[in-house]
């Protein structure tokens, strides 16, 4: 566990410094019950879904409107206090890791669905609304919200916008950025501004979505609603090994079929899922594929016949098709429980998120296997096979001396493999605080300096979620190329990660 | 630095020629044309231009060079025609990486050999990848596949000071770092030069069907003086035709509208379904279109106007929330005088309106102002893409832009010397 910031430099909310002045101002803006300073309650916000980075926030506020957030952000500017926005705190890269010298702005009291316009296939929601709540509000009328991160029951749409969340079905339907039409944001200066896909000018909306809270806070989000497909067909195929499963995936994509999802699990991941939820996957499988087809019934029927044939031709020894929603849920249960399930077969584990070109999967999996042997660390593989998004689960025993370090090294070397194969260090979990130090392996100084230009345009004072995404942010007045050494967060991350 | 600008440009080693009469950018004549052959050569040209304060306008196929405001000044036309290599077509990954000067037509041909396509319909196959991105052009299938920014997965750009920067990569799923590609998409050359781009591809559909039907907008009425006249009261509400198709489980890829005479003439709706079971799905769409009393045709060929702009000299783009397509059409129809045609992506609620180039400037001004008032009131935007010079001077090209202040700040950071296509963009950017 790492405590990234040990103590508030100015004595916290009760001290004499800027945080105390901000606290007083926030009480004026929000009223006392929306301002949290009690140390015990503050600690409940010390991490997001990535629990090994922890920092107790200097102050937590629970605003109810964009105007309140704007007022808080303006006060942050006045006192030079950094702010971090947080939705439900389910992120897996430490993107919502608070700062002990800053304020955590939590959107949990902004949970209204403001309007639903089915003629325009749009909904306008507040940032604290959960991803699934949008679908639930329109499901009866034949619509849904397409991006479906596995935390969709609890994760907030504001967090989805910050992280550009994906999900199992983004192979066919794309990511959050493809489904957001407009955002009202509070800029890091404290202005309320509309970013709309319809506007002439720069696509600032496209730059904002996925900026991990570093360009401001979304306070109102217009999402596109999709039409519930006529038919859904979920297929479970068991293969003797990962290689044959991989060949089936290539054959399906090569045949021109675009499934809604193609997921793969290897033997170790299956073992964990069986232990956790008894998902009843075919015994003896070295790999299973979950393929979901959706769309017009006639199209799904044709595509199903193709997929079934291609699976069998590539060595599938058992195929199951879900006949109804319950059977579909049973097939997905194993896959969706996989992350947590490895807890049953290992005392501790790291969830990695990397991407490789899909055709590089066999080579990369073989290399991961080799790493696993070399370090004596088991790696379970769960992945979105259709788009080459790997989620290796690096398993270790935290009681065992040095195992954590070895696991972290394996995890890092998997990212190097992804980069070497032309992939990415993150497909959907984000960079956050966790992977900021890997950015220099994927991008040149010039690339990162250019991205900084965007940040400096939005946030010249570096107050909006500072320390996330970028490894060594230079001050906005500095000339490119002048760097201020290693950022303390990175240093802390390097030294204290496990 | 002591050298004259012309000498300095020549010293870069990049092919430079004197500009000719055909090199105008929306009426502004450059002095030189630079023909870089690599990303590094683009950087060399821009670095030199920066040092000498030369204004640069990038150009690809030149098919939309008259779009946007004329630049305040243009010293160097940076022509990407020599950057015409497909760098990598990873067919198994459904990804392609290209230089900016590749034409959309040439790219389509190469991809088709592997049974794939970039699902971005452009009106002119001579347009380059770079130009298509810079002007954010999209066609009918934006309904299913989104626009250029949705299909772009990586970009290499060159900034005014010669910095070469990339973002994204060559994998579809990637959230590492800011998405500079999206920022440059639709930037009209004002932030820098797009040098390379990577796109996600789709398999060419096995089968396609177009379903078309035509609906009247006007009725003959007898007015208070006993005279018979036409009233454009839309007896068939366009939204009632388009909405059910857009939300139908037949999963159409595009729903287009062609409306050659907006004052009283009928409009034609054409729906594309593609992929598995296209015929069965087309028949379902046909049923929906015929529910409004029109006969619908199903064909394996597109209508002749499919994917083309209704005109090019004086072209206005209307964007509305999809539920307001009927409102947009009513505004256009009632503001229209004379020969005005419209065409567009009905379900995505983007309508292109072509006005005659010889229209009286004050009439043009009224038309744009009237339509804009109604459309902005319905939550939409009216943008003048291209207009004859004399008319353009009188028009507000962009209408409402929500985040102009932030856009200016982005421009200042990327191009502090204002050498990249200065003045082409909203707010004088």
From TrEMBL, chain A:
Record domain FAD-binding PCMH-type: where: 53-228
One protein family per Pfam: FAD_binding_4
Cofactors: FAD
Keywords: FAD, Flavoprotein, Oxidoreductase
GO function term, MF aspect, one: oxidoreductase activity
Name of the protein this chain belongs to: Glycolate oxidase
Protein source organism: Thermopolyspora flexuosa
């Amino acid at each position: 566990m790492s405590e990234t910031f040990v103590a508030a430099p100015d004595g916290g909310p009760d001290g004499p410094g800027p945080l105390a002045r901000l606290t007083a101002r926030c009480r004026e803006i929000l009223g006392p019950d929306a301002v949290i300073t009690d140390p015990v309650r503050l600690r409940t916000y010390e991490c997001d879904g990535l629990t090994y980075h922890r920092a107790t926030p200097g102050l937590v506020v629970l605003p109810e409107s964009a105007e309140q957030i704007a007022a808080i952000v303006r006060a942050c500017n006045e006192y030079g206090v950094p702010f971090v926005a947080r939705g439900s705190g389910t992120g897996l890269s430490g993107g919502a890791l608070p700062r002990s010298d800053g304020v955590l702005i939590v959107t949990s009291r902004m949970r209204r669905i403001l309007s639903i316009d089915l003629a325009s296939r749009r909904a306008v929601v507040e940032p604290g609304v959960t991803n699934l709540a949008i679908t639930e509000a329109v499901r009866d009328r034949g619509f849904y919200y397409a991006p479906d991160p596995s935390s969709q029951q609890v994760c907030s749409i504001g967090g989805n916008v910050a992280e550009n969340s994906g999900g199992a079905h983004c192979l066919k339907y794309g990511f959050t950025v493809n489904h957001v039409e407009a955002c009202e944001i509070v800029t890091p200066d404290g202005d309320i501004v509309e970013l709309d896909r319809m506007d002439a000018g720069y696509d600032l909306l496209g730059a904002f979505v996925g900026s991990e809270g570093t360009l401001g806070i979304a306070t109102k989000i217009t999402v596109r609603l999709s039409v519930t497909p006529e038919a859904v067909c979920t297929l479970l195929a068991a293969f003797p090994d990962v290689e044959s499963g991989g060949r089936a995936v290539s054959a399906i994509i090569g045949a021109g079929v675009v499934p809604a999802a193609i997921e793969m699990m290897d033997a170790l991941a299956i073992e964990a899922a069986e232990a956790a939820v008894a998902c009843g996957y075919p015994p003896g499988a070295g790999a299973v594929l979950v393929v979901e087809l959706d769309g017009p019934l006639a199209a799904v029927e044709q595509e199903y016949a193709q997929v079934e044939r291609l699976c069998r031709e590539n060595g599938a020894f058992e195929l199951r098709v879900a006949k109804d929603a319950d059977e579909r849920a049973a097939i997905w249960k194993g896959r969706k429980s996989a992350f947590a399930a490895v807890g049953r077969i290992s005392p501790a584990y790291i969830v990695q998120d990397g991407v490789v070109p899909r055709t590089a999967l066999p080579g990369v999996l073989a290399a991961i296997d080799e790493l696993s042997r070399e370090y004596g660390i088991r790696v379970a593989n769960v992945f979105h096979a259709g788009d080459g998004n790997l989620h290796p689960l690096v398993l270790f025993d935290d009681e065992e001396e040095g195992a954590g370090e070895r696991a972290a090294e394996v995890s890092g070397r998997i990212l190097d493999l992804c980069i070497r194969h032309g992939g990415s260090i993150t497909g959907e979990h984000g960079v956050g605080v966790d992977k900021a130090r890997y950015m220099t392996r994927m991008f040149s100084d010039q690339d990162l300096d250019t991205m900084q230009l965007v940040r400096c345009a939005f946030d010249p004072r570096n107050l909006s979620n500072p320390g996330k995404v970028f490894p060594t942010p230079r001050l906005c007045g500095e000339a490119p190329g002048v760097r201020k050494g290693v950022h303390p967060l990175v240093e802390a991350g390097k030294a204290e990660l496990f | 630095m002591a050298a004259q600008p012309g000498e300095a440009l020549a010293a870069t080693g990049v092919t430079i020629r004197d500009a000719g009469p055909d090199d105008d950018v929306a009426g502004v004549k450059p002095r030189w044309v630079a023909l870089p052959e690599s990303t590094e050569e683009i950087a060399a040209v821009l670095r030199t231009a920066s040092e000498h304060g030369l204004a640069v306008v990038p150009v690809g196929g030149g098919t939309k060079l008259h779009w946007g405001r004329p630049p305040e000044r243009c010293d160097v036309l940076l022509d990407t025609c020599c950057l015409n290599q497909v760098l990598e077509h990873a067919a198994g990954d459904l990804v392609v990486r290209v230089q900016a000067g590749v034409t959309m037509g040439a790219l389509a041909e190469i991809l088709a050999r592997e049974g794939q396509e970039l699902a971005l319909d452009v009106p002119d196959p001579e347009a380059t990848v770079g130009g298509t991105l810079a002007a954010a052009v999209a066609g009918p299938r934006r309904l299913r596949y989104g626009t250029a920014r949705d299909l772009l997965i990586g970009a290499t750009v060159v900034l005014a000071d010669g910095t070469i920067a990339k973002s994204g990569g060559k994998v579809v799923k990637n959230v590492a770092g800011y998405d500079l590609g999206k920022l440059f998409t639709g930037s009209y050359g004002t932030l820098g030069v797009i040098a390379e781009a990577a796109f996600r591809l789709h398999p060419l559909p096995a089968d396609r069907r177009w379903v078309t039907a035509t609906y009247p907008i006007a009725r003959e009425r007898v007015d208070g003086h006993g005279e018979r006249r036409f009233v454009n009261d839309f007896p068939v509400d366009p939204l009632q035709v388009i909405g059910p198709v857009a939300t139908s489980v037949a999963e159409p890829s595009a729903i287009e509208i062609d409306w050659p005479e907006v004052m009283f003439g009928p409009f034609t709706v054409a729906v594309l379904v593609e992929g598995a079971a296209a015929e069965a799905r087309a028949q379902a769409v046909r049923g929906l279109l015929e529910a409004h009393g029109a006969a619908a045709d199903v064909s394996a060929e597109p209508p002749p106007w499919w994917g083309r702009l209704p005109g090019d000299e004086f072209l206005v783009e209307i964007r509305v929330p999809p539920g307001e397509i009927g409102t947009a059409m009513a505004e256009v129809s009632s503001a229209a005088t004379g020969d005005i045609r419209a065409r567009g992506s009905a379900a995505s609620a983007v309508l292109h309106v072509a006005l005659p180039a010889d229209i009286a400037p004050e009439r043009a001004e009224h038309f744009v102002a009237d339509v804009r008032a109604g459309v902005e009131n319905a939550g939409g935007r009216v943008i003048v893409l291209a207009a004859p010079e004399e008319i353009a001077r009188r028009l507000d090209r962009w209408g409402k832009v929500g985040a102009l202040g932030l856009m200016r700040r982005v421009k200042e950071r990327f191009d502090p010397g204002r050498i990249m296509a200065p003045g082409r963009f909203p707010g004088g950017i």
